[in-house]
Amino acid sequence: MHFGSSSIRRFLKVPEPRFFFDRNRLSFRNKQKETDSKYCSRRLNGFLDHSQRANYYSTSTPAAILEDNGNLIKFKVGKLVEWDYLKDEKVAIIRLNDPKRLNALTVEMGEEFQSVIEQISDICNNSIDIHSSEEISRRRNETEIPSKYSQVENGEGINIMQMDIRSVILTGAGKAFSAGGDLNWLLARHKDSPSNNSKIMREFYRRYLTIRDLPVPVISAINGPAVGAGFCVALATDIRIACTQAKMGVTFVNLGLHPGMGATFFLPNVVDKQTANLLLYTGDLISGIEAERMGVVADAIPPEEGVLDRCISIGKKIGTKSPLATRLLVTSLRNQMDSGTTNLESSLRREADAQGLGYNSNELKEGVNAVAEKRKPIF
Predict the structure, then answer these.
(1) Are 202 and 125 in contact (CB under 8 A)?
(2) Half-sphere exposure of 193 (CA within 13 A, CB side)
């Protein structure tokens, strides 16, 4: 069967990228913003100019280069999320970056997180054309990329057309993966109405669960505590690798709150129903070793060996496989998970409604105060 790039997009149900490479102007242009005079006036090149630390294309918050040492290129979208690109490994690393608060999930972090996902998705979706049959045939007949695509007009820079992301790693800065929801924000929900809280929570979930929109395999490097909603984001990824000493759990009931962020969908799909029920009902924290035994994570790595290094190794191996076959497999496996009697969307609606009611209870207030005061809650 012959696959052209448009055929691949239709089969994978991948939208046309928001950006396309204008070969006449040697620049990226945003289809959605062609009428935006301010945007068009910038006419962003397909390269990032180091001297100007130029922001590259984005549907929302732009990213700036923090560092480029040849193989590792570091980007920063805002204060709370960073991402790196490892050229040789063909791996992108997304890093939650609020270590002082143990990478607690907030609305602000969620907005930045969604921007990063959109940016990486656009790069991945642009590369579908690169991996089409026509492009593979063309490359076989050429010894190198034509010079007009590899040169930078003004100074040195990064050719974004050559960024080939085959897998993504999600991790946290500092000692934690993510400690879950911000306690002050949870208390603020106590003052709102159930219906409004339900709406707020659905939007909050979706920002972080855009991780499932990436068209390549996503690996969680659980480097430290992954608790509550933070653990659920890890459960939403395709592969989880944890540090042996990392603590993780769906601890919502300890706060007097119904589980959210897809906990009631992902956990029963990751482990058997009895194990999922045990973790959800008790709110217990488990170690990386216990998580591996239960099947919550694929592997538990001692601290001295480095959980991120292990994930990069896995990502590098994925990068050597057929890009098309891998993307088709990502779609197949995620669709399979979402095709049961209870799908993700219906689970999220139920969780949001249940949390909307729970936020108005005195039990939530007692649970959050108990955590802040480092004591056991009295329900």
Answers:
(1) no
(2) 3
| Overall domain count for the chain | 1
- Our CA angle for 319, 325, 327, nearest 5°, is 75
Q: What are the beta bridge partners of residue 63?
A: 56
In a domain, 33, yes or no: no
DSSP helix/strand/coil, 191: coil
Residue 26 counted as domain residue: no
**CATH number of the CATH domain containing 368:** 3.90.226.10
Q: Which two tokens stand for residue 285?
A: 């924290």
Residue 327, domain extent: 59-372
Residue 271, domain member (yes or no)? yes
DSSP 181: B
Residues 6+ apart with CB under 8 A from 225: 102, 175, 176, 177, 178, 179, 246, 247, 248
In a domain, 174, yes or no: yes
Distances from the Cα of 45 to the Cα of 53, 61, 83, 133, 218, angstroms? 13, 17, 21, 27, 29
End-to-end Cα spacing for the chain: 62
- Tell me which of 147-161, 180-194, 227-241 is least confident: 147-161
pLDDT in tens, 104-144: 999 999 999 999 999 999 888 876 554 544 544 454 444 34
* Residue 14 identity (one-letter amino acid): V
CA distances from residue 93 to 20, 73, 135, 211, 273 in whole angstroms, order as listed: 24, 10, 27, 12, 31
